[in-house]
Amino acid sequence: MEIINRIVDGYHDVMDNQSDPRTKDWFLMSSPFPTLAICLTYVFTVKVLGPKLMENRKPFELKNVLIWYNLFQVIFSCWLFHESIASGWFTTYSFRCQPVDYSRNPHAMRIANGCWWYYISKFTEFFDTIFFVMRKKFDHVSKLHVIHHGIMPMSVWFGVKFTPGGHSTFFGMLNTFVHIVMYSYYLLAALGPKVQKYLWWKKYLTALQMVQFVLVFFHAFQLLFIDCDYPRAFVWWIGMHAVLFYYLFSDFYKQAYIKKAKSMKLKEKVEVESSKVEPKERKLSILNGFSNGSALGDVRQRMAGAVASQ
């Protein structure tokens, strides 16, 4: 019982005394458990409940919904990217070491507010997967997709709770830029076949995601080697997320593009070789027919029949 009390007291000490007091009363910020519950509900819905509900139903036609949804995400991502730039990236923020400003001045509060909206954006991205399920594109609900979307709200929650600003917003700045490109691609794809034929650059989106995680990895872990007034725990938190996501996205890239391309080349090679072999086989079969006397026998039988009929 004493151990449980210590755990509970430690939890309240961290949440109440070591977190950012500016954000503790904001929506969903008082405790991590509502966010955790939403994330778990999302995973259960897209992996179990959704496919079960769609099992005997026709896929939904969501063309217009997808167009408006992706347009919203492009606009939302543009605004979030603008807010991250307004916070100081490429102007006053240092790429080497940027502590969090915990004051209540308007600029610091604007940064914290932007971090909270970035956290909310991770929930809106759940609809990417929900729409896959509704259209019965279950092969799109991959391990990468579910893990990435399923843990991001929980991950960002800790950032808003303890470090809403400073060094960690580098990841948000990069991520919102990538999402501008990504949702622009999805928007164009939703417009139909007339536009889709020009979308040859899909695989480069995955490459862009991988570059993003490499940059986040080096940007975060540089603080392990220099003095900076930024929590080391969050250095590891952000850096290890970059490692995890880089592994998942690189594995997806290999499976979806490299191995698929090799498989297609092998298939084409087999088809070419088959087209060369088949005519030879047909020629040999004809020659074999005459050489074994079968064709000649047929001719003789016809002649004998004609003589008999006379």
UniProtKB/TrEMBL annotation:
InterPro entries: ELO_fam. Pfam families: ELO (PF01151). It is found in: Membrane. It catalyses: a very-long-chain acyl-CoA + malonyl-CoA + H(+) = a very-long-chain 3-oxoacyl-CoA + CO2 + CoA. Its EC number is 2.3.1.199. One of its GO terms (biological process) is very long-chain fatty acid biosynthetic process. It is a multi-pass membrane protein. The chain crosses the membrane at residues 26-44, 65-82, 146-164, 170-192, 204-222, 234-253. GO terms for cellular component: endoplasmic reticulum membrane. Keywords: Fatty acid biosynthesis, Fatty acid metabolism, Lipid biosynthesis, Lipid metabolism, Membrane, Transferase, Transmembrane, Transmembrane helix. GO terms for molecular function: fatty acid elongase activity. It comes from the Eukaryota. Its main location: membrane. Belongs to the ELO family. This is Elongation of very long chain fatty acids protein.
